[in-house]
Design goal:
- The complex is a heterodimer of chains A (498) and B (507).
- By secondary structure, chain A is α/β, with parallel strands linked by helices.
- Chain A has 16 helices and eleven strands.
- Chain A has two domains: 219 residues, Up-down Bundle (Growth Hormone, Chain: A); 254 residues, Rossmann fold (3-Layer(aba) Sandwich), CATH 3.40.50.
- Chain B has a single domain, classed as FAD/NAD(P)-binding domain (3-Layer(bba) Sandwich), CATH 3.50.50.60.
- In chain B, α3 crosses α15.
- Chain B has an eight-stranded mixed beta sheet with strand order 1-18-14-17-16-15-8-9.
- In chain B, 46% of the residues are buried.
- The chains are: A alpha/beta (498), B alpha/beta (507).
């Protein structure tokens, strides 16, 4: 009996420590500042244990009966603490309140355990042995728990199921105590029934833990994150809300599947449809394959070269089922040749010529990207244009970043090209702008590919009209040694967001 | 051997601690391009081998730095190809040498040329030849990309090196007043590049006091202003303002138009110009040719290098002029106004970019109050958008104290000493620099550049060497008293032209 008794001390101690660790860890995960969270959780917990120990003196009769109930209560509260905290964070404003309330309740209950146990067994051993044995197993349990938690429990089970597993242990100790101390108990049947009920409840909880976690996480992020990946070059996040797929690169929205057709039809067709017999097309950036999807609508095109820095991006958009559905497997076309390279050096070293060039880079948010919007770059790209060739440049928003848009237009002009700026409304982006540029005069297309959802011949001229709130501004060209565009872009968005 | 329990525990825990010690990234490197030994052979008048063969050229150029290469460029541009250029080191270029690793090319010393003004005709002609200047436009790729410079001061970064943060009204007033004075000097037309075209006796008194005395005399006591003036003197002359002629200090700020365009630069710095010049004149260049003696008669010049005796009608002495008294017989009165500043440059290979405390990566980075001059990023002129590894060229003019003592220090201290000194300096701002650097190569230069000491600009020595010594024309930039690309190129081209003129006259 002695050993069994002390093993239950060990288990109880382990449970107590696990709940404390779960609370500290969750608070750190969700709120951040782990030093603050762990310190306050541990402090509050220990203090509550002190309250529990102090209160133990007021329990005089039916000690075993009360001990079993305390174990059951701890099993329920501790076992569900993790799930409860996650849901509290996801659905309420009062995460901290619930956190510390839980910590106090659990601390008080844990604080009651050891004094009660000692008093239950004191008749059987000498006082000094009780103290020595109980405390020894108490600390051993704590050691075991603190090693198990980071090494096995968190990585294998996760926080929700770990807490529930230890709730099961608490309830198990309760059930076991009804056998161990049967002679000191009355109403054993009722107690055992309650124990079984709690055990079943926790068992179901463990089985359903995934759903609880998922419910909570869904509410923590507005949309489902279906993919988050760090490539060597950027942080890719793909989210879905109902039928809306969104791609974020370094937290900047790249497209929303609900309206990207507006963007990509406007990016490609005004220029490409105006070229009589386009055969070779170059796409710089655009690893999502959406521009390529539009380009493939011209059967006479023989080859498309796609240059995108990030192999992870082109791989993802050639393999992920949701994404290949969106780009209609354009990246798997036999006409397509994918090159994963930095655009500027590639443009410098390649000698091919193209009838149409699509330049679809992320906005000039930093000096590195700013190099891809300079006169030096556009001059280098223009050398690849065939006699009838045109290029089109994604040029940020003429509405929100008006200086930037007209700076890009001026840069293309400075590079010796004739420019034809236009714009389109894309709901998820707002008003968006492009600049067509070439060595000769542009005349609007007389035919568009069939099956377009947005562009029409009748609607085209309106794209090239700029109302007065987006009208041209006199801007200097962007050059490698000035990088005025990056500064203008930063200013433009500062005006909007503050 | 019997191990007791106590010993076992002791050993065991020692082993655990040993295993768990954090290991720092190993930093490789060495001294490179040392040329002390050869210089000291000359100084100590060592015995050199007797010549075994004779080669004849109408012109021999001594020294393959920018002055010598420019002389060669001029000769070939004029259609004259029958000459030889003798370079002591394995690699030509002098202060425009470069290095290359698997990441990028990088400079070993001079790393930019300011956009030349209208008076620098030879420089403009060269840049047209090299495609840097096309139809009156500077090639965008060779102008330094933005952001250009940053200064770390008072725990933060600012763009540009002239302090603009933490200035009191007094500082601002002094910066403005000084700029107004410089504008006046600029307007006078006496501070030009090339220096010789403008230098006028009107301002010769400025050469008789130090730059720091001149600043003090005019009431400039702002700490930040004085730091900046000292920085400028260390950067261009390797000297403190108190060791620099006021004329030279003023020249630094008054010789160039306030240009919005940045200077011209390349990943390998002025090494790019060296490479282009070598493409044009390389077949006339011989390296590892240590000249140990030069004699002349009324009919010609004899240049002794290794076991060869070169016979020439004229020689262009483009090596540092302080070597002339050791090489030339009957050189005449010893040189007094030729003081040289000792320098150290280091190239650091970085496997990743260190923490920059929020600063935008720039071309040139300087720390306020550092004894060093900071560093230049060789990948800054890269056209790539994604840069993970790079090479930094770290500059350190040993300006505090006497040049001779500092030369001694350069020789005595080992590589680890300088490596640590460099890392300590960088660590003040880039706390994780040791985790990023994999290699530090260090180049020590005892006589890196001429120092424009008080009285040196209008010195008698300089006036004497502007004239040929018999059949020998001097061409090093130290003839101007300041060591910049434009001066080296000017004197090189001029010497070549004089030699050509004489040759055609002698027919």
């Amino acid at each position: 009996m002695g050993v069994l008794l002390f093993i239950s001390v060990l288990l109880v101690a382990a449970c107590g420590l696990i709940y404390e660790l779960v609370a500290g860890t969750l608070a750190s995960y969700l709120v951040g500042d782990s030093i603050f969270q762990f310190s306050t959780v541990i402090g509050t917990y220990l203090f509550a244990m002190g309250i529990g120990s102090a209160l133990s003196r007021y329990l005089n009769r039916g000690l075993v009966y009360r001990f079993v109930w305390i174990e059951l209560l701890l099993g329920v509260i501790g076992g569900f603490s993790s799930a409860l905290l996650m849901l509290a964070f996801a659905f309420t404003q009062g995460f901290e309140l619930i956190l510390y309330a839980l910590v106090i309740v659990m601390g008080v209950l844990v604080g009651l355990e050891i004094p009660l146990l000692m008093r239950i067994v004191r008749g059987r051993y000498q006082f000094r042995d009780v103290i020595a044995h109980v405390l020894t197993f108490d600390y051993l349990g704590a050691l075991g728990a603190s090693l198990l938690f980071p090494i096995l429990l968190v990585p294998r089970l996760g926080l929700v199921r770990s807490a529930m597993l230890f709730g099961l242990i608490n309830a198990g100790v309760a059930l076991w105590s009804t056998f161990l101390f049967a002679r000191q108990l009355s109403g054993i049947r009722g107690l055992r029934a309650a124990c079984l009920l709690v055990l079943c409840g926790l068992g179901v909880g463990i089985a359903e833990a995934k759903r609880i976690t998922a419910t909570a996480e869904d509410n923590i992020y507005a949309d489902d994150i279906i993919l988050a990946r760090d490539s060597r070059y950027q942080h890719l996040v793909l989210t879905r809300f109902k039928d809306d797929l969104r791609l974020f690169l370094n937290s900047h929205l790249q497209f929303s599947s609900r309206d990207e057709y507006r963007y990509h039809e406007a990016l490609v067709h005004p220029g490409l449809a105006a070229i009589s017999v386009p055969r070779h097309v170059l796409v710089l950036g655009g690893g999502d394959g959406l521009a390529v999807r539009e380009i493939l609508k011209y059967p006479q095109i023989e080859s498309i070269t796609l240059v995108d820095l990030d192999p992870e991006m082109t791989r993802l958009f050639s393999t992920h089922p949701m994404l290949t559905q969106l780009n209609q497997k354009s990246l798997l076309s036999p006409k397509l040749h994918v090159v994963n390279a930095d655009a500027f050096p590639w443009v410098d070293s390649n000698t091919d010529s193209f009838d149409f060039i699509v330049i679809d880079f992320p906005d000039p948010t930093n000096y590195s990207l700013g190099k891809l919007y300079t006169t030096a770059f556009y001059r280098a790209v223009a050398r690849h244009l065939s006699a009838q060739g045109f290029m089109v440049v994604q040029s940020t928003s003429p509405m929100f970043a008006r200086d930037s848009f007209w700076c890009i237009a001026q840069t293309l002009k400075q590079a010796g090209l004739q420019t034809y700026p236009y714009h389109v409304y894309v709901p998820s982006f707002g008003e968006w702008g492009f600049v067509l540029a070439g060595a000769h005069e542009y005349s609007a297309p007389t035919l568009l590919p069939s099956g377009l959802r947005f562009l029409s011949l009748a609607g085209l001229p309106a794209l090239f009209q700029f109302p007065s709130d987006m009208a041209p501004l006199a801007m200097p060209p962007n050059q490698l040694n000035s990088q005025v565009l990056v500064r203008a872009y930063e200013n433009d968005w500062k005006d909007i967001s503050h | 051997m019997k191990v007791g329990r106590r010993e076992f525990l002791g050993l065991g825990s020692a082993a655990l601690v040993g295993l768990s010690l954090k290991s720092e990234r190993r930093i490789e490197g060495s001294f490179v391009n040392d040329s002390f030994q050869m210089g000291h052979l000359l100084r100590d008048r060592a015995a050199f081998p007797a010549p075994k063969k004779v080669e004849k050229f109408p012109v021999v150029i001594l020294g393959g730095g920018i002055a010598g290469l420019s002389a060669a460029w001029r000769l070939r541009k004029r259609g004259f190809t029958d000459f030889v250029l003798l370079e002591m080191n394995a690699q030509p270029g002098g202060n425009a040498r470069w290095g290359q690793n698997e990441i990028t090319a990088y400079p070993w010393a001079a790393h930019y040329v300011p956009v030349p003004g209208p008076k620098a005709e030879y420089v403009r002609e060269l840049f047209e030849d090299l495609g840097v200047l096309k139809n009156g436009q500077w090639e965008e790729r060779y102008l330094v990309f933005s952001p250009q410079e940053r200064l770390f001061l008072f725990g933060r970064w600012q763009e540009g090196i002239e302090p603009a943060v933490g200035l009191k009204q007094k500082d601002r007033d002094q910066f403005q007043r000084l700029e107004d004075l410089f504008a006046g000097f600029r307007k006078s037309g006496a501070f030009t590049i090339p220096l010789e075209l403008g230098r006028s006796a009107e301002f010769s008194d400025l050469d008789s006091i130090s730059f720091s005395d001149w600043l003090q005399k005019h009431g400039f006591d702002s700490r930040l202003l004085n730091w900046y003036m000292n920085y400028a003197c260390r950067d261009d002359y390797g000297a403190l303002a108190k060791d620099t002629s006021a004329w030279a200090g003023i020249h630094y700020f008054s010789s160039r138009e306030q240009e919005e365009k940045g200077p011209l630069t390349w990943p390998e710095g002025n090494g790019w110009i060296t490479r282009r010049l070598l493409e044009r004149v390389g077949e006339n260049v011989r390296t590892n040719q240590m000249v140990h003696r030069i004699t002349q008669t009324s009919r010609g010049v004899q240049v002794f290098a290794g076991e060869t005796e070169f016979h020439a009608e004229f020689a262009i002495f483009a090596a540092p002029t302080f070597l002339a008294p050791y090489l030339l017989e009957n050189f005449g009165a010893p040189l007094r106004d030729f003081v040289y500043s000792p320098w150290l440059t280091a190239n650091l290979t970085l496997e990743r970019l260190p923490d920059s405390r929020g600063g935008e990566p720039s071309w040139d980075t300087v720390f306020l109050d550092s004894p060093t001059l900071g560093y230049v990023d060789a990948m800054h002129q890269s056209l790539r958008t994604h840069i993970d590894r790079t090479v930094w060229t770290f500059y350190w003019a040993l300006a505090e104290g006497a040049p001779a003592q500092n030369r001694q220090l350069l020789l005595e201290r080992d590589w680890s000493y300088w490596k640590e000194a460099i890392l300590h300096d960088l660590e003040r701002v880039h706390s994780d620099i040791r985790q990023c650097v994999s290699r530090i190569d260090i180049m020590r230069m005892g006589h890196a550049m001429i120092r424009p000491t008080v009285g040196s600009i209008f010195s008698e020595d300089r006036r004497r060497l502007a004239q040929p010594l018999g059949r020998i024309f001097f061409a090093n930039s130290d003839l101007s008293g300041i060591s910049i690309f434009e001066e080296a190129q000017f004197h090189g081209v001029q010497a070549a032209q004089k030699a050509l003129d004489k040759l055609s006259r002698h027919g």
